[in-house]
Amino acid sequence: MADARSDIRVLYICGLGSNTTGAKPTYLRQHFKHLSIPSVKHASYAATREALAKECRSFKPDIFVAHSAGVGKAVTLATTGTWKGPLLLLAGGNGCAPVSDMTGRAVTLVVPSDDMGAEHQRRAVRCALEQSLVCTAEVKDTHDLNTSMVDQDRLRGLIISTVERHAGGATSPMEVAPEGESCATIETPVKEQVKWLFSEWDLNDDGLVSRDEFKDCLSRVCGEMTTDDVEHVVHAVDKNQDGQVDTEEFLEWVFSGAEHSEKLLAETTEPQTAKALSAEMPQPQPESHEV
């Protein structure tokens, strides 16, 4: 017998440490007839956003499901108007913050209690403007959520309930903006774009980059920096001197006017895309502050 609501069209955005044959993608294939897992590991923010928008228009999903670093990418499409349907966000950490701006749509945040980003997700729910359509499911699990979502078979039910909650909401469900149509209502924060760059270095998706990894990345993307320069930057970024650079430390450094910030934002680990990335990255306004 087919699973209930197995016809739901699911667009799944993996975290950086995941792959299309991992536990959650395999589970989704078993329970849903229509599944799209687009490639999202691009060097530039603009290329990633466009690839996801193109897949969204082509596949016409009923729901976005995203895990970890994929949450920020799903939220970007939602806040810029490309996707107006429901979202199921898994272990999204501070990438969940903009859900307070997404009124009139169903959003479910799955919060693993043993995840370092759990409080960010709880705060996102507390700040949400339309509590009737935004809810949370806190589970006893680690960041990967495979135990609760896959082994305990909870992911399928959350997808179905989120879609059905959205269908009863204030907006038309499953609405995708046509290509070329400008319907953005919230400008994607520059900080969110910078997080994408940082996430390319965060290979295990835990929001942390070791000092050695950070030094290696700086040396590769800013080859003209001396060893002393690199050491100075690493020391400045790692505010609490715990030997690791987290997302917030990285953002604080980038937007503090540090000596090498422009170099880092304008370049990427792929030399052939450095100029394109520099042109695509918008510059933060001095007087602009996130709420």
Task: Describe the structure in your own words.
There is one protein chain. This protein is an alpha/beta fold and 291 residues long. 40% of the residues lie in helices and 12% in strands. The protein contains twelve helices and eight strands. It has helices at residues 23-31, 45-59, 69-79, 118-127, 146-151, 155-167, 190-199, 211-221, 227-237, 247-254, 261-266, 274-280, and strands at 9-13, 34-36, 63-67, 87-90, 107-112, 134-139, 208-210, 244-246. Helix 1 links the parallel strand 1 and strand 2 (34-36). The protein starts with 8 loop residues before the first strand and ends in an 11-residue tail after the last helix.
Question: What order do the helices and strands come in, and which of them pair?
Answer:
Elements lengths: L8 E5 L9 H9 L2 E3 L8 H15 L3 E5 L1 H11 L7 E4 L16 E6 L5 H10 L6 E6 L6 H6 L3 H13 L22 H10 L8 E3 H11 L5 H11 L6 E3 H8 L6 H6 L7 H7 L11
Helix pairs in contact: 7-10, 8-9
